[in-house]
UniProtKB/TrEMBL annotation:
Family: Belongs to the LeuD family. LeuD type 1 subfamily.
Subunit (UniProt): Heterodimer of LeuC and LeuD.
Protein name: 3-isopropylmalate dehydratase
Catalytic activity: (2R,3S)-3-isopropylmalate = (2S)-2-isopropylmalate
Cited function: Catalyzes the isomerization between 2-isopropylmalate and 3-isopropylmalate, via the formation of 2-isopropylmaleate.
Keyword Lipid biosynthesis (UniProt): no
Entry superkingdom: Bacteria
Enzyme class: lyase
């Protein structure tokens, strides 16, 4: 997983609550099992008409939003099914940070596992960020300092420290366990070697 420290760039404003994973990644594309190349299917029914032509009024299709790394959206973003393809599709669009009042629990966990920062702010702060994003202002998101800055305004945010460390270091779940519990694992293996040495015999049939 690629480490996340900070990101700066334009933000897509999508002020809508309860956007579920079927909107993010329609169910008919679940037959695609590869994680790469799913960005083209993200928000597909919003971005394209039934003939596959881009919808000119869709915020994702605006030229100035091409490659925008930040999404500011409504409450309960990513609710619905647990499909990890929704996160992979968002990654494929180039988004690395999503800011909302709240998230679907499984979706938020999948984001962290894939290196996407999810930030929760209250409704008033989100409303201000929507205004900045709609005006084309660049947002800076700093995970080291846990703050979002834009045009001199600062928006602090909170994140669980183990999630913060995982993102900063690019750790997956196994890496996190090894980093946080290496001493306890070594102690356990040392005791086990003493009491059950046959478990560590190499090259012999058991």
């Amino acid at each position: 997983m690629k480490p996340f420290s900070q990101v700066r760039g334009p933000a897509i404003s999508l002020p809508e609550a309860n956007i579920d994973t079927d909107v993010i990644f329609p169910a008919r594309f679940l037959v695609i099992t590869a994680s790469e190349g799913l960005g083209r299917y993200a928000f597909y029914d919003r971005r394209y008409d039934t003939a596959g032509n881009p919808q000119p009024d869709c915020v994702f299709n605006r030229p100035e939003m091409d490659g925008a790394p930040i999404l500011v959206t409504g409450a309960n973003f990513g609710c619905g099914s647990s499909r990890e393809q929704a996160v992979w599709a968002i990654m494929g669009m180039g988004l690395t940070c999503i800011i909302a009042p709240s998230f679907g629990e499984i979706f938020a966990a999948n984001c962290i596992r894939n290196g996407i920062l999810t930030v929760c702010l209250d409704d008033k702060e989100i409303a201000k960020l929507h205004l900045y994003a709609a005006a084309g202002a660049a947002l800076s998101v700093d995970l080291q300092g846990c703050a979002i800055s834009v045009d001199g305004a600062i928006f602090p945010f909170a994140i669980a420290e183990h999630h913060r460390q995982a993102l900063l270091n690019g750790w997956d779940e196994t890496d996190t366990i090894l980093a946080q519990d290496a001493g306890a694992i070594a102690d356990f293996e040392g005791r086990q070697r003493m009491t059950q040495p046959w478990l560590y015999i190499q090259g012999e049939s058991r």
